Amino acid sequence: MRQNRTMKVLRAGGVAVGIAHSQLANAEIPKMYGAADLDWVFLDSEHSPFSSDTLHELIRAYRMTEITTVVRVCDFQYDLVARALDSGAEGIIFPRCEDPAQLAHAIRGAKFPPNGHRGFGLGPPQIWYRTATFDQITVHCNQQTLLIAQIESTQALDRLDELASVEGLHSLLIGPADLSISLGIGGQWDHPRLIEAVDSVIAACQERGLWPAIQVRDGRLADFWISRGMKLIGCSTEAALLWGAVERLAGQLRSSVARA
C-alpha cells in the first residue's frame, strides 16, 4: 500500500512543501502540482465551494500523483472526516482548534480501532486494487494518516500546551490570517506579536515531537518561517497564483499597447 510521502519527508527531518487548492474544481491542478513535484496539497473544504462529489474527484485526481492530499474539513463532524479519508485523503486538518477534548474525540474518529472509532468503509480503489487483510489496511491507515490541528486564535494559544499534548496528533498548523485578527493585528504578517505567537507554537511542537506547520501567502514568508523551524509549509493557492500571473501579463500587455 502507498506510503504517505509527506510523513516520510518529515520523519527523515526534512521540510515538506505544498500549495493550497481552494477554489477551482479542475483535475488539471493536481496534474500541475504533481509535475511541480510538491510534497503535499492543502485541499480546503472549509472556505471552498467544493461539494462532497467534487472533493471526492479532486482527491482521486491527487491520488494519481505522489502528492499527499491533506483535507481541511469545515468542522469536527465525524462524517466529514470519514468521507474525506474514505475518498483517499492521506491527512486531515482540523480547523479552529481550541478545545483539547473536542480535538481528541475528532482524532479518534480518524483512526481505526484500537486507536480510535473510525468505521471501515474502504474498498479496492482506496488501496490501489491490492490484496490486503483488514488488519493490514487498518494498521497502515493508522500509521500513514497525517493529523493536524489548526491554531487560529488567542484562545488556542491559551490552551496550547493541552492541544499539543493530544494523543495521536502529528502537527500544529498556524492559520496566520485568523490568528492575526484574533491578536488585533489583522494581516500584519511581520508584526512582533504575531511572530512571538507563532514562535510559541514552534516551541510547543519541538517540545512534544510534533511538526510545526504554517500556511503563508508567498515565498518570502515561507523562507522566513522555514528559517525559524517550520517543517510543513503551505504557500499560496491555485487561485492566487493564477490571478497573479494574469495580473502581471495584463500589465505587460497594456504597457506594450501604450508604447506602440
What number of domains?
1
Q: If helices are DSSP runs of H or I spanning 4 or more residues, what is the number of helices? A: 12
**Helical percentage:** 40-55%
Order of helices and strands: HEHEHEHEHHEHHEHHEHEH
Main sheet specs: 8 strands, parallel, barrel
| Estimated structural class | alpha/beta
Widest beta sheet: strand line-up: 1-2-3-4-5-6-7-8
CATH fold-level name = TIM Barrel
Let me know the number of strands: 8
How far is the N terminus from the C terminus? 59 Å
Q: Any idea what the radius of gyration is?
A: 19 Å
- For CATH, the homologous superfamily is named as Phosphoenolpyruvate-binding domains
- Could you tell me the mean pLDDT? 96
**What is the CATH architecture term?**
Alpha-Beta Barrel
- The low-pLDDT segments are none
Overall geometry comes to: globular
What is the CATH class designation?
A: Alpha Beta
Q: Proportion of β residues? A: 15-25%
How would you characterize the overall build of this protein?
By secondary structure, the chain is an alpha/beta fold. The chain has a single domain (5-259), classed as Phosphoenolpyruvate-binding domains (TIM Barrel). The chain is built from twelve helices and eight strands. It has helices at 5-11, 28-35, 52-63, 78-86, 100-109, 134-144, 154-158, 160-164, 176-182, 192-208, 219-227, 238-259; strands at 16-21, 40-44, 68-72, 91-94, 146-151, 171-174, 211-216, 232-237. An eight-stranded parallel β-barrel has the order 1-2-3-4-5-6-7-8, surrounded by seven helices. Helix 2 links the parallel strand 1 and strand 2. The mean pLDDT is 96.
